[in-house]
């Protein structure tokens, strides 16, 4: 598994997660090492929300007006995640164009593909977000292309 983060201004390094590592544990360690925030259970934890509001100026915090009328989050919220709606498919197309015999070969190909993603591509992907958000609202939180 790999982890990454993007914004309109740049990207993190591509991080390879070893098999068996629990993401909630990694996240807790990361947050504890970065300003002492804790991650109790989910992204909606008060401490996590406070940390993200402080450190991420464009963060949309949990609030009932962001939920559907029935109080549930959009079931297709990955459609609103730039990594899910764009980046992973770019990486897959480039890194998996040929079969890999080893995990190390796949990792190298993923890193190469990741490093080839330009700031212009990131800006275009992020700039597409309002259009996707509108499509999600029109689909009432359901599936959309």
UniProtKB/TrEMBL annotation:
One of its GO terms (molecular function) is nucleic acid binding. InterPro entries: RNaseH_sf (IPR036397). It comes from the Eukaryota. This is Transposase. It comes from Acrobeloides nanus.
């Amino acid at each position: 598994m790999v982890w990454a983060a993007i914004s309109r201004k740049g990207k993190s390094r591509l991080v390879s997660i070893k098999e068996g590592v629990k993401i909630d544990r990694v996240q807790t360690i990361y947050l504890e090492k970065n300003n002492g925030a804790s991650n109790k259970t989910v992204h909606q934890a008060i401490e996590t929300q406070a940390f993200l509001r402080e450190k991420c100026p464009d963060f949309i915090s949990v609030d009932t007006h962001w939920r559907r009328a029935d109080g549930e989050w959009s079931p297709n919220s990955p459609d609103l995640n730039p990594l899910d709606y764009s980046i992973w498919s770019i990486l897959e197309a480039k890194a998996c164009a040929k079969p890999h015999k080893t995990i190390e070969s796949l990792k190298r190909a993923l890193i190469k593909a990741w490093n080839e993603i330009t700031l212009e591509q990131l800006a275009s992907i992020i700039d597409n977000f309002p259009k996707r958000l509108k499509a999600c609202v029109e689909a009432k939180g359901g599936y959309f292309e």
